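Dig into this one:

. . .
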Amino acid sequence: MNMANACWMRRSLDEPVSALSIGPYQHIIVGGWNGRLTMWSNDGDELWSVHLPDRIGCIVTDGASIFATAGLHLCAINSEDGIITWQHALEGSADQVTVIDKLIFATSSVYDIEHNDFIDSAVWCFDEFGNKLWEKHIAERPWALVNDSRKLFLGLGRPRTGVVELATTGEMKHSPLPSTSPVTTGVETAGGPLFGHANGDLTTLQDRVFDGDGSSISSVSCGSDNSITLCCNNKLSHLAADFSPVWEVELSSITALSRGLIIGGHETIWLGHARGTEYELRVISQQSGEQISAMSCGKLTSVISDDNRVIAGDENGEVYVWEGGMFNRRLTDLLSELEQDEKRALMRDKLNKLRKR
């Protein structure tokens, strides 16, 4: 199936895509490497476009507000008209942002070229009007910011590693995790925070639930059935809800990953990866790990999904949107065509045999 032709919507940001989000009314928000932030409506119409100070790294929405990290800055944007309502320069790069009860939390980090390492990190808290309520500094960079509704968990790198539990009032409590390896990523699940580590371990706050093989986990995705998909550079591992291995797929240089549409009654996994000197978007069955479809594209930088859509953005500035009903219809039509082609081939073979008699 030609996946590009199966797109429900395709747009161009006119600069490399760096971040994606789904906003109010299922509108699509796209951020770029040069700071452009654009919102398209659920129907595909451009609603507004604005330029932020630098490359956009993380986008979250809360009601009528959009919050984005852009280089050194944390910015708040009105989702109705794209007007920047406030912005603050943080110390070092602004990395991640999340919202709890109208409070905006952002992390920042300072990288020292001479030391070849991060030398300072901070967590910042602002109210919805942009007033800074507090900031807390730590020696480690928080590589994971997991929002647990009423509090935050920061998965740390060296030297301490482990996790910091952060209350909305700013109180911090450090605890070791069941793996001493630095945290590289994290995700909120029905059972609580889940952390991936530099050695491939997967841990909850209490237990090491998956033993790594030394390959760093770059991303973790959780399915609606609580199954887990791990990305380790060139390997995709799928685990059942009890963390038992289900399947593995070897792929080169995975660049983006998300759970996706339900196809044939099962959830799918959508990912971008390198294929030689080119790049590809691939759709994989969550149940079996088998490929369902694929297409060539630029290097994918972000893939996200909701219940009925998958959105992908690449370094060529292309934004692709697939809708569940349309994608399934196109796939069904393709299978029907292939079945008809197979029947025609069998009929031709029978006729050729009859002619030879």
Summary: The chain is about 10% helix and 55% strand. The first strand starts at residue 9 and ends at 12. Helices lie at 324-355.
